[in-house]
Automatic annotation (TrEMBL):
It holds the Pfam family FNIP. InterPro entries: FNIP (IPR008615), FNIP_repeat (IPR052697). It comes from Dictyostelium discoideum. This is FNIP repeat-containing protein. It comes from the Eukaryota.
Length: 624
């Protein structure tokens, strides 16, 4: 007799076996069908289980078997010899299940017999699992590999799969000829490490757009890569010489990892416009290695020091990504660069790291460098700031910056002076710190509140210098005085979801643009001071009498979704513009007699215009 031996499945599966006396031989379960389903699932999982790992606890080795659970392998966590610890959490559960008595094997009377039997079963099952794993590997058990957001199907010899459609990414071990048998060519082809076919002309057919090369074994020659390829990845271990012409002139984008052959002048053709040097790249970049055709350069954690002329003067955009660990002394980034994006770089920026020619700087999530005065040079006009880790101080942002964009996750207190007085345009996303009076300087004339913005706009937060306000799907309710009276133009963007009761849009507003807003407009939503209303494509509100007030003189209509009715357009309107996409029927009296000018986009709109007042003159906006 084995005393206090309890086998169970944790949490969701209620299968418990216990032998306290030889006469007891019951299996208590919550559902007979559950046992069958559980065993089927575990048997299927065992086929994929590698070596001697437990199915339920993949980090634990198999130790034993429970003979009453259809020989399911068990680990230490599956079996407890302390009946109290095993059964205590089950008492409540057992009170709520009905006993189902199933016949089981007679209880064993000898621990040594159990050990001998289970060890024999373990060795047998382990050998079976190893054999099954080998068979699965031979049959390409892992038929897909993920890389850079793409899922590649690994061809393993079954040509029938290529008669199907729907696979756009293929990984090949040893044979590219099969690609030509596809009904539709894949967009992306990956040649895996060890690929050993000569790539003569036509083996990789024309039409392939993106090619990834691992540690292939055959030398590349001119025409190995078809001219239709526009993007190439040279992956870790790639070990082929890249003489002139190997990479064809059709290639526009080149990603280079830790390749083993030295790049030389003309390895990269002049037609390449974007180069990405990825983690582990370990080549010296002397002048000319990156050709003058390159416009955009991305650099990760490369291993060789950059020097002057490593980056050609044609490059206009540089992105230094997380892990970049090179000193940026004066001249490393050439004066041709206009846009610089910085991730979590590891070397401290100093004055002159960024040339004065740069006009746009992005500080991405994780950027962790101190921005003392002069680090961002005075040539910068536009600054994007993400969730950076160092606190901004006065003079971090130079006075020459005119546009600041605070992106999702920005988590800095904006006390007076952090945003300098030179800034004219401010974009705010889902920032994490509360705005206070003087967070926004009085020089700002345009504010955009993007979707997700979640800060209260009490009186004075938006200063009186602001003239133009764009509002997206913000999360805090607007109240009277959220928008100052100095604002003259308001744009309610797609997704705006606030009730516009009287006074929310102040009387100073003259021009109103409305997209696909989600709350119904009511009388007095639009103040009587508004003279121009533009309803953009997607606007989906009924325009009953009085919604557009009689102060409006000009009405512009895009691809609106609701039909216009009589009195949708008030008699005060003198000019109507039908922009591209407008396709609603204008029946008699829709356009009131007050209208003097009707602008239409194209001839199609002439067909939907019904009788119009004789006083109206029709003009065409699109003369083509």
């Amino acid at each position: 007799m084995i005393k206090y031996n309890v086998c169970y499945y944790h949490n969701s599966i209620l299968v418990f076996i216990f032998f306290s006396k030889p006469k007891i031989s019951k299996m208590i379960v919550s559902d007979e069908n559950q046992i069958i389903k559980i065993n089927n699932n575990i048997n299927n999982n065992n086929k994929n289980n590698k070596n001697n790992k437990c199915t339920l606890h993949p980090n634990d080795n198999l130790i034993n078997f429970c003979l009453d659970c259809e020989l399911i392998p068990c680990c230490k966590r599956c079996t407890s010899r302390n009946v109290f610890c095993s059964l205590y959490p089950l008492f409540t559960t057992l009170n709520h299940v009905k006993d189902v008595v199933l016949p089981v094997n007679p209880p064993l009377s000898s621990s040594s017999y159990l050990t001998t039997t289970t060890n024999s079963l373990f060795n047998s099952t382990k050998n079976n699992q190893i054999q099954e794993n080998n068979e699965n590997n031979e049959n390409n058990e892992n038929k897909f590999i993920e890389m850079d957001g793409y899922k590649f199907y690994i061809f393993s010899g079954d040509e029938s799969i290529f008669k199907l459609e729907g696979y756009s990414n293929f990984a090949l071990k040893d044979n590219c000829n099969i690609i030509s048998k596809l009904k539709i060519l894949p967009k992306n082809v990956l040649l895996l490490d060890g690929f050993n076919q000569k790539l003569t002309k036509g083996i990789i057919p024309e039409g392939i757009k993106e090619l990834r090369l691992g540690n292939i074994k055959q030398e590349l020659t001119i025409d190995s890569i078809p001219n239709t390829v526009t993007t190439i990845w040279l992956l870790d271990g790639f070990n082929q010489k890249l003489t002139k012409g190997i990479i064809p002139e059709g290639v526009k984008e080149l990603h280079i990892c830790d390749i083993k052959q030295e790049l030389i002048i003309d390895s990269i053709p002049n037609t390449v416009t974007t180069v990405k040097l990825l983690d582990g790249f370990n080549q010296k970049l002397t002048k000319g290695i990156i050709p003058e055709g390159v416009k955009e350069l991305h650099i990760c954690d490369i291993k060789q020091e950059l020097i002057i002329d490593s980056i050609p003067n044609t490059v206009t955009t540089v992105k230094l990504l997380d892990g970049f660990n090179q000193k940026l002394t004066k001249g490393i980034i050439p004066e041709s660069v206009k846009e610089l994006r910085l991730g979590n770089i590891k070397q401290e920026l100093i004055i002159d790291s960024i040339p004065n020619t740069v006009t746009t700087v992005w500080l991405w999530d994780g950027f962790n460098q101190k921005l003392t005065k002069g680090i961002i040079p005075e040539g910068v006009k536009e600054l994007y700031i993400d969730d950076i880790k160092q606190e901004l101080i006065i003079d971090s942002i130079p006075n020459t910056v005119t546009t600041v964009k605070l992106l999702d996750g920005f988590n800095q207190k904006l006390t007076k002076g952090i945003i300098p007085e030179g800034v004219k345009e401010l974009h705010i996303c889902d920032i994490k710190q509360e705005l206070i009076i003087d967070s926004i300087p009085n020089t700002v004339t345009t504010v955009t509140l993007w979707g997700g913005f979640n800060q209260k706009l009490t009186k004075g937060i938006i200063p009186e210098g602001v003239k133009e306000l764009y509002i997206d799907d913000i999360k805090q309710e607007l109240i009277i005085d959220s928008i100052p009276n100095t604002v003259t133009t308001v744009t309610l963007c797609d997704g705006f979801n606030q009730k516009l009761t009287k006074g929310i849009i102040p009387e100073g507003v003259k021009e109103l643009y409305i997209g696909d807003i989600k709350q119904e407009l009511i009388i007095d939503s639009i103040p009587n001071t508004v003279t121009t209303v533009t309803l953009w494509g997607g606007f989906n509100q009924k325009l009953t009498k009085g919604i557009i007030p009689e102060s409006v003189k000009e009405l512009r209509l895009g691809d609106i979704k609701q039909e216009l009715i009589i009195d949708s357009i008030p008699y005060s309107v003198t000019t109507v513009c039908l922009f591209e996409g407008f396709n609603k029927n204008l029946t008699k009296s829709i356009i009131p007699e007050s209208v003097k000018k009707l602008y239409i986009w194209d001839k199609k709109q002439e067909l939907i215009i019904g009788p119009i007042p004789d006083t109206v003159t029709v003009y065409k906006l699109n003369k083509d």
